[in-house]
Every structure is written in structure tokens, then in C-alpha cells.
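Let's sit down with a protein and look at its sequence and fold side by side. Go ahead whenever you are ready, and we will take it from there.
>
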Amino acid sequence: MTATNSRRLDSEQLPPVRFAFDRHTWKEIAHLLSNLPAAILGFVYVVFMVAVGSGLAVTVIGLPLLAAGLLGARQLGKLERARARALLGVRVDEPSPLAVRRDGNLLSRLWMSLKDPVGWRTVLYEFIRLPWGVLTFSLVLPSLFVLWPVLPYIARGLTNADRAMVRGLLSPSDELERRIAELESDRGVVVDTAAADLRRIERDLHDGAQARLVALAMGLGLAKEKLLEDPDAAAVMVGEAHGEVKLALQELRDLARGIHPAVLTDRGLDAALSSIASRCTAPVKVHVDLAERPAQAIEGIAYFTVSELLQNISKHAQARSASVEVWRSADRLLIQVHDDGRGGASLDAGTGMAGLADRLGAVDGLFVLDSPVGGPTTVTAELPWRDRD
């Protein structure tokens, strides 16, 4: 057990109940007496919020009001956790922030807000609290004058129920809730990345091979017209067209390599990474230690991650040497790319490094960048190992 966990358990460990009104007992009594006003406030809020939001759901303002009400319910939950922490010694973690992607459209952000499990659990908590607040207030207040000797026992029993409600409804649902939020966000990253790749392919086809093939067709048409009246000129035009065909084929090969290189499919990561390393401006040592090949999708992500990192080295690092290492550890595929360049790379939004981190995160991967100003730069990437079908 870590020191932090030990201190937390010690802070939550309450003294035994005895016939004495120490500070812990008085705090419990204060919590029970404050249940009623807090419960009335919370109950009125959630009833008004749900009634207005649901009643106006047929209009354009109903669902946004309900979403805003759920955000407010989150704040009520925060206040209740603070009250329980101060008076009952209950320490629960704060739930994850609402996973609403800022670059999503208005409807998707609204839908994510309406599905917020933290907000809805707080609404349920506030509904339950009103009858409970009435019960605790009506039991504790008379007991201050009538059942004084056994009041510490009554307070302890009632506050144990309070503690259970706080832990059950106001604490985060362990890793499940966090994982759902991450997956919702990662799904958007995958969709955006796929859309960007499709736009890039479309642009490359339109501006490159397609434009060249259109010019080739026009050139061959002119050569056909001159074939009888000026064979020599037609021969020159056919020769130029032959050169254009070679260039178009090369552009299509480059485009296909950018989608999924044939060498990766045929020979695996070792040969594919050696191929892209040969095009880097700095000498690159490649070491791949894999007894078997991972799933095709994981191989592709690993290849394009290294490819982009080596492109960054060529464009920005001013490195004299670099290295690429790939190996397997348990059920993870690990990649490390190192260069002795000038460093200073960052994960700021909008950079290529941030995009790589997002892509790896979308498939349950990790991306760690160590690049102090002056260098060197080391990038460690981790992907889930998935066996080939």
C-alpha cells in the first residue's frame, strides 16, 4: 500500500462511537441537521430543471436547457461531496470532466451533455435526499432533547447511510466511466483522421495523377491528328506522352505507398521501415526484434508513425544520426525513435506530434515525447499487440 493510500485510509478512519460528544460526533449531527435544507435546495433545483427541460423538449430551447441543468447538477454534486468531506470524512475522487469535443458540431456536443452519467446520478441523489433529509432532521432534532445519551449511536447509524449514498451515487464509477469518456473522444479522432486522409488522397489524385492523365489524353489526341500530316511531330508528341505516363505511374505508386506500402504487406515492418529510413536525410539505424507479425492494422499504424517521425527529422531536426527500434513486450508493440538533432519538439495542439499522439490514443496506444531544447529527441510509442488473423 502506498503512503498516499495509507494517509487517505487514516483520514477516513473514524473513532469508535462512545457516550461522548467529541468533534466527530458534533460534525455528524451538523451534517444530519443540514440534510434538510440541502435536500430541499437540491430537490427544487432538479425538479424544476427536469420539468422545464422535458416540458420544452419539443422546442429548440428545451434540450439545451436540460443539458445546462445537468451541468448545474454536476456542481450540486461537487458541493455535496465537499459537505460530506468536511463533516463526514468521506473522501471520494472528483468525476471525470464532461467529455465533449470542442471541435464537434453543436448537436453532438448537446447529445454528449444529455448523456452525462455524472449529472444524472446527481439528479437521482437529489431526488432520494428529500425524504431522507426529512427523516434525519425529524429524528436528530428531538433526540437532542429526549434521547441525549444515545444520540451518538443514532448519529453514527444515520451518517453511515449518508456515506453509502455519497460513495454510491456521487463518486466516479471507477475506470468504466473514464474509459467510456475516452472512447467517445477517441472515436471522434478516428473519424476525423479518416476523413482527413480521404481528403488528402482525393487532393493528391486530383492535383497529381488525374491532372497529368488529362494532359496525356490531350497530347495523344493532338498526336493522333498530326499522325498523317506530320509524322515526325506526332512521334515527338508520343515520346512526350510516354514520359508523362511514367511520371503518372510514379505518382500513383507514391500515393499507393502512402495508403499502404506493398513492402509492408509482403515483407513486414523490418523491410518497410528500412525502406523509409533510406530516404531520411540523416543516417538511420533500424532494429526490429519481432518473432511474429502483429495485426495488419497495428503494423500500418506503426509504419506511418515511424514514417512521420523520420520526415520530421529530415525537415526540422538537423540531426547527424537517428535510430529506430521496434520490439514486443507482453501484449504491447513498442517503438522508439531517437535523433541527435536540435530538439525542441512539442505536443502543442496543431503540430504533427499532437496528431500522432491523438492517432495512437484512438487505438489505446501511448505516445511519449522527450525533446529538450538543444536535443536529443526521443519518441516512445506503444501500441496494443493484436495477432494476425
Q: What stands out?
A: The chain is about 65% helix and 10% strand.
